[in-house]
Amino acid sequence: MIKFFRKIRYDLMEKNKTGKYFKYAIGEIILVVIGILIALQINNWNENSVAQARIEIRLTNMIQDLQSDIDETNEILSITKNRIIINQAILRQSDRLGSIRNTDTIYPDEISDNFKNPNAIISQNATFDGNMSTYNSFINSGEFYLIENQSLTKEIQRYYESIDELKEKGESIESNWRIIVNSKHRLGLGTYSKIGLSKLIELAKTDKQFGAELEHVYHLDHWQYNYISELQKEAKKLKQVIEQRNK
Prior knowledge:
Blueprint: H1 2-14, H2 18-93, H3 118-121, H4 133-141, H5 150-186, H6 197-206, H7 208-245
């Protein structure tokens, strides 16, 4: 093909057809430019196809991360629920009813006497870590913003912003939880020693500081429970959206 175009140029030059030669040269340049543009377009299309394939892999990995978050929130909700039940029973029976609002009684029908070691339960705590590995690598790669569904992009960002907010609160939750542990040590109680509910109620009655600290942690537990519940709903919704997108 190149030889063919070259022969045409030589023929035009030999016949001294300069005007036609320049027109032909311009046409040839245009053809070359068009060829380059087509090649670039094909290359861009190939690169975009490869990037979209990587995005699909990352979204699949994100589904696994979200399931991990759901499992973690289930564990935290279980621990927090049990702590709320025990502290609610202690506060009610130690004449601290004023600290309990109607909206606080998440599990009013649970029987706290069924717990073998309530002292150990109110010493248990769990803060949310969250699995952000896929999201962070997504952002760092620059491919996150290549997701074609902008609505999905916003949902993902909103979810992981909620995790960041919860992590910021995590240090406060951890330090407040240790208030109870330190208070029990002050009273000569072990962190996980087997102590019945009646003894804890008695201590909340006689030691005003211990009772007040239980009230504080009790309300903090409700905040954590509600926030984790909402976060779990977001994780389930986002996981479903991504799964449906991949079908």
